[in-house]
Amino acid sequence: MPPLGYRRLTPSSSAAESGVQRAVADRRAARGSLRSLALLVDRLATLGVDGEGALTNPDAAVAVRDALRQLTGRIREAPMECRVVEVQFILAGEPVDRALTRDDPLIGTLLVRCMSLGIGAITVRQGAAPGELLTLASLLAQARTGGATAPTNDTPTSLSAINEQQASRELLRSWSVQVMPAQLPAGLRSATPLSVQAVAPREADDRFADTAFTDDVVYGTTDDRETVASSAAQAFGKLAAAHDDLAATKAADVLIAVLDTAEFRGEARVLAGTATAVMIHMHTVSTGAGRLAVERVLRRLQHRSSLELLATRIPHVPDRTLLLELLSRAGETIVDILVKQLMEATDAVARRAYFDSIVGLDLGGTLLFEQLRDPRWYVVRNAAALLGELGVEQSDSTLLPLLQHDDERIRVATARALVRLGTAKAINGLHAAIDDSNAEVRRIAAVSYGLTTSAAGAVRPHAARLAMALDKETDEDVALEMLASLGKLGSADAVQRLLRIAMPQQAQTGDTPEKPREAWLRIAALEALVRARGQAVMPHVQSLTHDTDTEVAQAAFRLSER
User: Fold this and answer.
1) Under 8 Å CB-to-CB from 256, ≥6 apart: which residues?
2) Domain-wise residue ranges, the chain
């Protein structure tokens, strides 16, 4: 069993909402997941969590593992989307009854914790790894003491410290978990006029000035930077104030000349500020007077040297929506630039920003195929993760050989990418990874056995191989996934195997195991049986309501009452 403070190194999902499954409108399932999360958070907080998210009392591991197993089981069945709006939880798009929050101390306390952290939304993908769920719960468990989980150095995952001065759009992001703040910190308000609401020219001018020129200069002297910045601000002000095409064209000529100077001097901030302001103004004028002039400026910003400078600002822009909207016009060229930036970035926050941006652009499959042959492990790992997030289904054949790679980091990223693709070839290929030396790869392979029934064209595997792997499995999380997948397979062999695990050992002739089966293993097998055969196995379930193991008896009683 992994230590309670462990964190699985996982690549990020995409920016904002892409790549993160939205919850199915099942209020009962969502409420069960929320309460399981609240239970895990409560146990972590009660038993003591240090600044690294690890238990200060190792003897409490059993209680925490029980709660973590319960939450993992809930998320295995369905994703969870929870928002906090006006002192109320919103689950699957439906408000949670305030009476429930008041009467259930676990959910009520969790709501208080979310509010104290300024959390606006928690989204969890279906099938999230236990390590990710533990990290989420550890973050919430530290709310009262003001603690913050330390950032990891994994690429492209980062766990941001809770700091109002930090320009982060997320409080937590991993492969399957995303925690968004209730609102951006002061001074970082969104600059996204993508709705039908227009932005007045003066407001756009202010946004331009605030966005572009508030930080220190990187290239040239401060006076030189301020001169270029001032010229750009003045030129844009004239463009924003133009009321006819002629005036707009003249202003665009001046602004383009300033952009030439800024590009020559390497003033990335000036270019980024101009790009953001011009995109705002473009939405303002729409198809009216001055639109052609605005398009001329945007075409000027498509020069490769300008794109390369704009790309350097990606990690530093709190809301990248407008900048990415401009960059997307460059197609494969900007993806090439962003991929190179991703591979050369030296800190986790920058790598995450570039990863999310590439996924958000939804381009670059051809380039990423080439990256899979790169000799650098992190390049291959990032390319595999991106192909999975982008849903490039034809990459399954190219990714499958990487399951045999010597570097386990590449194998983990590849397994996640294949399960994200969900093609028949990807799922069938993952079955063979059930014997991998890495626990996370084995866990994902176990998940793939349960996905076979939903993947069109996938070959239904025999339960025997999965059962054999279960016999020698030493990782609890992997064993739980194996049992769940046996239940999803539901074949006669799978049911027989689950019965052997769930039923009392003395009732099995010739079965002389070295040590008694743990309660959690039998309960998981029992739950998988109910999933596989429902009412057909109820006689076996009811027979266990008087089991000598009180935990098994309680679980059997709960299942028989459904």
Assistant:
1) 296, 297, 300
2) 27-181, 201-317+320-348, 364-463, 490-562
Residues 6+ apart with CB under 8 A from 407: 377, 380, 381
Q: Please give the order of strands across the beta sheet that includes 177-181.
A: 94-95, 89-91, 80-84, 119-124, 177-181, 172-173
Terminal Cα-to-Cα distance of the chain (whole angstroms) = 31
CATH top class, domain 364-463 = mainly alpha
Length of the chain: 562
Q: How confident is the model at residue 443 (pLDDT cuts 50, 70, 90)?
A: very high
Distance of CA 397 to the CA centre of its chain: 25
Q: Residue 80 belongs to what H/E stretch? A: strand 80-84
Q: Which two tokens stand for residue 97?
A: 């009854």
Phi, psi of 179 (to 5 degrees): -120, 120
Closest by Cα among 509, 507, 504, 562 to 538: 562
The single residue listed with the structure tokens 């901030």 is: 269
What span, in angstroms and rounded, lies between the C-alpha atoms of 420 and 359?
13
Q: Give one DSSP letter per residue of 210-239, joined into a string.
A: HHHSSS--SSS-HHHHHHHHHHHHHHHHHH
Q: For the chain, what percentages of helix, strand and coil (3-state, to nearest 5) are there? A: 60, 5, 35
- How far apart (Å, rounded) are the C-alpha atoms in residues 274 and 284? 15
Residues 57-93 have pLDDT tens digits of 666 677 888 899 999 999 988 889 999 988 889 887 8
Q: How far apart are CA 258 and CA 237, in angstroms?
A: 13
Sequence-ordered list of residues with C-beta below 8 angstroms from that of 404, at least 6 positions apart, any chain:
411
The torsion defined by the Cα of 301, 302, 305 and 310, in degrees rounded to 10, comes to 60
- Chain segment 337-374, per-residue pLDDT in tens: 888 888 888 777 788 888 888 888 877 667 788 888 88
Query: How many CB atoms within 10 Å of residue 384?
Result: 29
Residue 177: what are its φ and ψ, rounded to 5°? -125, 135
Taking the C-alpha atoms of residue 206 and residue 184, their distance in angstroms, rounded to an integer, is: 19
Buried b (16+ CB within 10 A) or exposed e, 287-322: eeebeebbeebbebbbeeebbbbbbbbbbebbbbbb
